[in-house]
Write a structure and sequence with these properties.
This protein has five helices and two strands, in the order ααααββα. Pfam families: DDE_Tnp_1_4.
């Protein structure tokens, strides 16, 4: 149950509107965590480029989460993803015309990262 000052609409429509607004707020918070919070340059053109890069990073993160992640990683905030998945010191090694992703076995989230990598590879092959 929620209170609103909207005068028209059915309760189901109002709840849908509130849920959509919550998603927008979540995406804004995620974009701020991705770099949108700060404008590091004095020049407007450089800051415009910075905002475009931040938007691209937020879109890539959301897309990769939706396509490749399961469990907590599918709904994690960018800070948690950065600390747990993006910060791993993995190596892409090419031997015998094959690419191999090498991740330290001691990394606690290795299985999630490998599963996401396999999902992404499966999506990219025809």
């Amino acid at each position: 149950m929620f209170l609103t000052n909207t005068t028209s609409g059915q309760p189901a429509d109002l709840e849908l509107q509130h849920r959509r607004h919550a998603r927008v707020e979540d995406r804004i918070r995620a974009a701020k965590d991705t770099g949108l919070r700060n404008l590091p340059f004095h020049d407007a053109a450089h800051n415009q480029l910075w905002l475009e890069i931040c938007a691209l990073a937020a879109d890539l993160t959301a897309g990769l989460q939706r396509l490749t992640c399961t469990g907590w990683a599918a709904v994690a905030e960018p800070k948690r993803l950065r600390l747990r998945l993006f910060a791993v010191a993995g190596h892409l090694v090419r031997t015998a015309r094959r690419n191999t992703l090498k991740i330290p076995e001691t990394w606690p989230w290795t299985d999630i990262l490998i599963r996401a990598h396999h999902q992404l590879r499966a999506l990219s092959t025809p």
